Amino acid sequence: MWRRVASLSALISSTSNRCFLDQVAYRMSTCKLFSSEVKENPLTLKDLFITFVLGGPGSGKGTQCAKIVETFGYVHLSAGELLRREIASNSEYGSMILNTIKDGKIVPSEMTVRLIQKEMELSNNHKFLIDGFPRNEENRIAFETIIGADPDIVLFFNCPEEEMVKRVLNRNQGRVDDNIETIKKRLQVFKASNLLVVDYYSDKGKLFEIDATGTEEEIFERVRPVFAAFQHDQK
Ligand SMILES: Nc1ncnc2c1ncn2[C@@H]1O[C@H](COP(=O)(O)OP(=O)(O)O)[C@@H](O)[C@H]1O
Ligand SMILES: O=c1ccn([C@@H]2O[C@H](COP(=O)(O)OP(=O)(O)O)[C@@H](O)[C@H]2O)c(=O)[nH]1
Ligand SMILES: [Mg+2]
User: Fold this and answer.
1) Which of 16, 122, 150, 229 might form a disulfide with 24, Cβ 3.0–4.6 angstroms?
2) Which residues are annotated as a binding site?
3) pLDDT (tens digit, 9 = 90+) per residue, 11-49?
4) Domain range holding 95?
5) CATH of the domain at 174
6) Is residue 122, in this structure, part of any structural domain at all?
7) CA distance linking residue 190 with residue 172, whole number of Å
8) pLDDT tens for residues 193-213?
9) Residue 144 burial by CB count (10 A; 0-12/13-18/19+): exposed, middle or buried?
10) How far is the CA of 173 from the centre of ligand 1 (A)?
11) Where, in this chain's numbering, is a ribonucleoside 5'-phosphate bound (predicted)?
12) How far apart are CA 176 and CA 157, in angstroms?
């Protein structure tokens, strides 16, 4: 499965005679995502640059998103954070969301997409990192349908399971799902559902797979060239 992933390192080390920048340009030309019928949407979708940030629990998505925000000026929308905020706001859906998260399962797509949509509409920025979403095919299709857009690029932080478990157990943010029972369930969901989405974007040629082992700084040095390459293309 992973052989189909066109990671940045694979692009750079490619022995094909097309140079790296040509390949990035080719990738970008295949990333024109906004369908013609979405023009009336108040989000002015054609101006957006959307990155989905995927990876297992504890793979470092949130940590790397903070660095991308700092360096490249994106808006970071963590789907998990939006759901936790919804619980904290005493929303009528709070207990359903809390139970779903405790059980390591995935909240109904429309709920999550509406929360993301609201944040996108409130933002003055047009460059978004959507972190921890989509987690399954239903999420992916709901985003396409409700927002009317696809991501321009997708990052996938690939991390060994053992390392992810270690990081989550050391996270210390008081999260109801950072315990060994829930982590085991989340890892099952990750393998059964999240990876299908990763595979989908790999097949579409939009996936950048990042080795998520090493220090935060080492990982960011693998992330940086992806955004540097796309910086000038952003509307
Ligand atoms: N490269 C790294 N090495 C060790 N610990 C890390 C690394 N990156 C992140 N962490 C820590 O691991 C935990 C999970 O990281 P986080 O960014 O929250 O992952 P995710 O959002 O993918 O669940 C956090 O406590 C974070 O500080
Ligand atoms: O689109 C999403 C994102 C998150 N979650 C739920 O929120 C939890 C925590 O997600 P988050 O992305 O914050 O976890 P992380 O992967 O960063 O540890 C997940 O296990 C799910 O139960 C969800 O249902 N849909
Ligand atoms: Mg996170």
Assistant:
1) 229
2) 58-63, 84, 105-107, 132-135, 139, 171, 175, 186, 214
3) 333 333 333 333 333 333 333 333 334 444 455 777 899
4) 69-233
5) 3.40.50.300
6) yes
7) 21
8) 999 999 999 999 999 999 999
9) middle
10) 11
11) 84, 105-107, 132-135, 175, 186
12) 23
